[in-house]
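To start, an entry.
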Amino acid sequence: MQVPPLTPPAHSLTLPAPAKLNLMLHIIGRRSDGYHQLQTLFQFLDYADELTFAPRTDGVIQLHSELTEVAHDSNLIVRAARQLQQASHCSQGADIWLTKRLPMGGGLGGGSSDAATTLLGLNHLWQLNWSEDQLANLGLSLGADVPVFVRGHAAFAEGVGEILTPVELSEPWFLVAIPQVSVSTAEVFADPQLTRDTPANKLRSLLEGGGRNDCQPVVQKRYPEVHNALILLNKFVPTRLTGTGACVFGSFPKQDDADKVARQLPATLPCFVAQGRNISMLHHKLKELLKKSR
């Protein structure tokens, strides 16, 4: 087995794994297999984890990360890499370094985004030439949110989140507050008080009306930290939960407006300001790489 380098070598590939927001999230039913039928609007942020990839010739997938909460082989990055390796019959391996910025259990899609960046990054590094459709289909087996990160376009999602319709949204600035708690998605979706019968809406009416997040009442009830953050941020701007949380967000037309409110939040409620993006910063980076390789 090769001895892995302690730091990424000069020929490595570094890519972002951006955050997403659920601008609304309606639960319209529950399938016989227990999965929930959703309607949601995804938009990306220009705020991201960072992954660096370097090829290995021995076929080993090795993740280098300071995270201790998730076992190496259970990490979605490692699982994504191994699934792509197996499905493509690729004999190469990879060292992967993770710089983690997105909070775990925050509703920003960090794990799914990391997995999607891994699929796209290794597809480029290993020169597999897999299509976006192939990578998105493989990603769905890792999690319902992975395909939207693979495709990299703001989208209206239906089904369990895998039926995607690209949308063009305004790109405001968002203040995202991070309550210091990790929310269990499984517990939220298992809660008997969760609304599961919101009437399905047409995309146009959701774009005009904004919708709501059906998970928010349950998360507020179960997690006082989220409840308190919503109350605090609502004093400045209409605030909503993203996904199953814990992060909450409000939108602003200008960065200065978001920064001004951010400075007024207590140190006990970490936050960041980022712009909404219809095209993922990952896809901008991959487009640049393709231009350079031609």
